[in-house]
Amino acid sequence: MKHTEQVPVVGLTGGIGSGKSLVSDTLHAFGIDIIDADIIARDVVAPGSSALQSIKEKYGQDVITATGSLDRAKLRTLVFADHNETKWLNNLLHPLIRSEILRQLAQAQTPYCILAVPLLFENKLDALCDLTIVVNTSAEKQLSRASQRDDVDIENIKRIMAQQLTAHERNKKADIIVDNNGTKTQTIKQIKQFHEEMLNKYKKNNKKDS
């Protein structure tokens, strides 16, 4: 499950709208390095990138905004409806994303770091991790949070959820489960407890203080 001589890596995942950002934002506030696959995925298709040019050549100007950026909502609608299109896009982007993840992991300097990936298990990126956290919440809360946050219709969210592992499957693979069905305060309490346990376990790895 380990990778190279670097700080311990904690994989963070959960279904769409589960509350992964709350966990990563809280740990970042505690001073922990966060490697966020969603941010990396946006960066690899930034204006001027070879990946964005490939997407434009395949799908046309319709998936490009007036400012030259990728229209992720339009692309999502095209791709999630067709397995072959999903496969093509994954084959284009996943090697680029993985390469950047590895680069950022090698630069992590805190006692441990977080690798936040929506499809951590599905894309087998848990192989890069020392342990994994799953953020768990009800399907109803997932739909509500995702639709409010991303301005995506419910049917598209359900299609995204269908391509992810079920909560039961994710939880079986997880080393640690954060229950995000309660209040924000209750969730943060769990995160703080986890963080303190990790500091005690890996305090010798704090390169920033060395």
Automatic annotation (TrEMBL):
GO cellular component: cytoplasm
Keyword Thylakoid recorded: no
Biological or metabolic pathway of the protein: Cofactor biosynthesis; coenzyme A biosynthesis; CoA from (R)-pantothenate: step 5/5
Sample GO molecular function, one term: dephospho-CoA kinase activity
Binding, ATP: G17, S18, G19, K20, S21, L22
InterPro entries, per database record: Depp_CoAkinase, P-loop_NTPase
Keywords: ATP-binding, Coenzyme A biosynthesis, Cytoplasm, Kinase, Nucleotide-binding, Transferase
CDD domains associated with the record: DPCK
Gene Ontology BP term (one): coenzyme A biosynthetic process
Coiled coil regions in record: none
Localization (cell): Cytoplasm
Enzymatic reactions: 3'-dephospho-CoA + ATP = ADP + CoA + H(+)
EC id: 2.7.1.24
PANTHER family listed in its UniProt record: BIFUNCTIONAL COENZYME A SYNTHASE-RELATED, DEPHOSPHO-COA KINASE-RELATED
Function: Catalyzes the phosphorylation of the 3'-hydroxyl group of dephosphocoenzyme A to form coenzyme A.
Family to which this protein belongs: Belongs to the CoaE family.
The protein's name in its UniProt record: Dephospho-CoA kinase
